[in-house]
Write a structure and sequence with these properties.
By secondary structure, this protein is α+β, with helices and mostly antiparallel strands. The protein has two domains: 111 residues; 170 residues, Aminopeptidase (3-Layer(aba) Sandwich), CATH 3.40.630.30. The protein is built from nine helices and seven strands. A seven-stranded mixed sheet has the order 1-2-3-4-5-7-6, sandwiched between helices. A hairpin with a 2-residue loop joins strand 2 and strand 3. Helix 4 packs across helix 5. The longest helix has 18 residues. The radius of gyration is 21 Å and the shape is globular.
């Protein structure tokens, strides 16, 4: 597709050099750049990630994104003719480099065929749009995704299921509330929602470190508050978050969007790559952590 660089090459090179940290970062950058229409390029990048999983860990490791490995298994089984650099990769058990070493016959990594049996296709995310009136029917699923995506934070008062549900119910009272969900086979795997900031809102109260006083100025249609972006842990690192992010912001008439992000959030660099800039810090609720306030220009 014109205007989008073939970033799968970077992921490929790092993967085969054995620099898996750099390869993982390159994989995320590539998936963040590719629009939904570039499915072939995204599949190539997912194949690189699966190669790293197969070479480093038993297939189906609990802490790994299984969908990426499944994509690799299908591609290895069918071959990769015409798929750029991937078509040249060595297949398991055939011409493997000496450094790969030999594996026990019972090891799940020993043969490509066994990996193929365990693997399958990466599911496509279906984007659905909802207004505030749809939330009551979706509320249980929305709360469940929060519980899953933030399972390691539920012990903190601000992130308990009850506090999240309380905030959600408050957000839905906003007439400008907008929600996009991403179901796969009837299971909601992620969503994003937000609403426009009113001219009289106290969103910016307590902002620290801002160098431009105009940042806090609001009109009725200047800023869209991007309040939540969540994806279930088993479906993370597949580009779904970026799809939901872009879908929520598509066709917004506001000049800019804003969000609040924990300073230790692992997605921080991802937002910066998507074009967000940090304008200061604040603590939006008494029981919340200190957040970084970010801005994204929309128009």
């Amino acid at each position: 597709m014109a205007g989008v660089p073939p970033r799968h090459t970077e992921s490929y090179v790092y993967t085969h050099l054995g620099d898996h940290a750099a390869a993982e970062a390159a994989c995320d950058r590539a998936l963040g750049l590719y629009p939904t229409a570039m499915r072939r390029e995204a599949a190539q990048v997912e194949l690189h990630r699966a190669l790293r999983l197969v070479s480093d860990d038993p297939v189906g490791g609990a802490e790994r994104p299984a969908g990426c490995a499944r994509a690799a298994g299908r591609s290895a089984h069918r071959g990769s003719a015409g798929a750029g650099p991937i078509g040249d990769r060595r297949r398991p058990g055939a011409g493997a480099p000496p450094s790969a070493g030999r594996r026990p016959a019972g090891d799940a990594r020993a043969t490509g065929r066994r990996a193929v049996v365990r693997l399958g296709a990466v599911a496509a995310l279906e984007i659905r749009r909802h207004g505030k009136n749809a939330v009551p029917a979706l509320r249980d699923d929305l709360v469940d995704v929060h519980r899953d995506a933030r399972s390691d934070l539920l012990g903190q008062p601000f992130y308990t299921t009850e506090r999240f549900a309380e905030r959600l119910d408050n957000y839905v009272t906003d007439p400008t509330f907008s929600l996009v969900t991403g179901p796969i086979d009837s299971t909601m795997v992620g969503y994003a929602f937000g609403g426009a900031l009113a001219a009289t809102i106290r969103w910016w109260s307590g902002l620290q470190g801002a160098t431009d006083p105009d940042v806090t100025r609001e009109t009725e249609n200047r800023t869209f508050a991007f309040r939540e972006l969540l994806v279930r842990k088993t479906h993370q690192r597949r580009g779904y978050a970026h799809q939901l992010h872009d879908a929520l912001l598509a066709d917004r008439h506001e000049a800019r969007a804003t969000l609040l992000l924990r300073q230790d959030n692992s997605a921080r660099d991802l937002y910066l790559r998507w074009g967000w800039t940090i304008v200061g810090t604040m603590q939006p609720f008494p029981d919340s952590p200190i957040m970084e306030a970010m801005i994204l220009r929309l128009h």
